[in-house]
Write a structure and sequence with these properties.
The strands form two sheets. Strands 1, 2, 3, 4, 5, 6, 9, 10, 11, 12, 13, 14 and 15 form a 13-stranded antiparallel sheet that branches. This protein is an alpha+beta fold. It is globular and about 65 Å long. It has three helices and 15 strands. The protein has two domains: 32 residues; 236 residues.
Length: 273
């Protein structure tokens, strides 16, 4: 009887042990993956890390973002307008989409707020194949050119003369050079905005990595924002980092810029690559 039991154990181990080992390796790999966007080590060590609560987006409003001492206290979101058309055969199409929004971001620790006025526009030109028969088509499907532009003007209630401008643009297509450009400036200072992901160093095997931006001035990382948490369930996993040593006004300006990016990029997460 004991010999029979031992044989059954051996059969079980031979069949199941490889599966168990593979499962354990997969678990360890998942745990070792980079889940958040990769940011500068010095920023990570010296920044306040804040999880973003999105709140509810009511009609005519933006999301009620809240993180740390910062919160959207008032907002206005205009209608998204779209225009476009195709040629007679439907082989060439052009579309234009635009939206404007504004909001106030309050820093409750200072009883000060920033006022942000933003606008986005997206245009695209595409060609499509013409289907003659079920098995025969002429031409090809191709994105000729797309342009995604965003701008935001930021002021604070204590210094309305000091206006900061955030610019973000992305061009792509067969007849356009792929180019991403983003920065924040008040003329005296210019802060570059660079895209980053959780797979920047090849440590995230998910098909969709976490996505975000890092703000850098003269080689020094000032802040970062994660607007998508990665994977298929990455929405509403937003994080903001702001360097602790910055002045309260600098922090408010940067927090406002990152809030505007959270709003505009939330609905275009899968079209920015």
């Amino acid at each position: 009887m004991s010999k029979f039991i031992n044989e059954k154990k051996n059969i079980f181990l031979r069949r199941c042990l490889p599966v168990i080992l593979v499962s354990l390796i997969s678990i360890f790999n998942i745990q070792g993956q980079q889940k958040e966007i990769v940011i500068d080590d010095d920023l990570s060590a010296k920044a306040e890390k804040m999880k973003v609560k999105m709140g509810t987006q009511w009609a005519g409003k933006i999301f009620k973002f809240k993180f740390g001492d910062y919160a959207v206290t008032d907002s206005k979101n205009g209608w998204t307008t779209s225009t476009g058309g195709t040629n007679f055969l439907g082989t060439k199409a052009r579309s234009e989409t635009s939206n404007e929004f504004s909001f106030e971001l309050t820093d409750k620790s200072l009883s000060e707020k920033a006022v942000v006025n933003a606008a986005s526009s997206m245009t695209s030109e595409e060609i499509s194949s013409f289907q003659l028969f079920s098995t025969l088509a002429i031409g090809s499907d191709e994105l000729i050119k797309s342009a995604n532009n965003f701008s935001a003007f930021i002021t604070t209630t204590q210094d309305e003369e000091d206006t900061w401008v955030l610019i973000k643009s992305l061009e792509d297509g067969s007849q356009a050079n792929y180019e991403f450009r983003a920065f924040l400036t008040n003329r005296d200072r210019t802060i570059s905005i660079e895209r980053t992901t959780s797979n920047k160093k090849g440590q995230d095997s998910r098909s969709i990595p976490a996505k975000g931006y890092e703000f850098i001035e003269n080689g020094k990382s000032l802040c970062a924002v994660q607007y998508y948490g990665g994977g298929m369930m990455g929405m509403n996993k937003n994080i903001i980092w702001i360097r602790s040593e910055l002045s309260p006004k600098e922090k408010l300006i940067l927090a406002s810029a990152m809030t505007s990016l959270l709003q505009v990029d939330y609905t275009t997460t899968f079209s920015l690559d």
